[in-house]
Design a protein that fits this description.
The chain is mostly helical. It has one domain (3-71). It has helices spanning 3-21, 48-71. The chain is rod-shaped.
Length: 80
């Protein structure tokens, strides 16, 4: 795996994991707490920095597995 292939693989894994992590711990505000102009379904404290850190940690682990599989030729994407 070249550095470019590794980078592209990491970015794809990161985005997939982000979309899986985003719904964790989402709480919507009570009916009386919604400010004017905000959607009623908007989370009160989304904690995006924490979710980005968790996403990065999980993506690094999954990328390591993908790199290990590709470098040992256990799974080959090339002919021969």
């Amino acid at each position: 795996m070249t550095w470019f292939e590794g980078l592209v693989t990491f970015i794809i894994i990161w985005w997939l994991v982000l979309f899986m992590v985003l719904p964790w711990g989402v709480r919507i505000p009570d009916e009386g707490q919604v400010e004017k102009g905000h959607a009623t379904s908007a989370p009160t404290r989304p904690k995006l920095w924490l979710k980005a850190l968790v996403t990065t940690a999980i993506a690094i682990l999954l990328w390591g597995v993908a790199y290990g599989l590709a470098s040992t030729n256990l799974i080959s994407f090339r002919n021969g």
